[in-house]
Amino acid sequence: MQAFYKRADAVIELANSQLSPTSHSGQVGASLLYAAARYSASVASIGFVKGDDLRKEKDEIIDFYTKQYRQMLSDNIDDYAQNFDKYVNISKSS
Question: Three-state DSSP class for 20?
Answer without folding.
Answer: strand
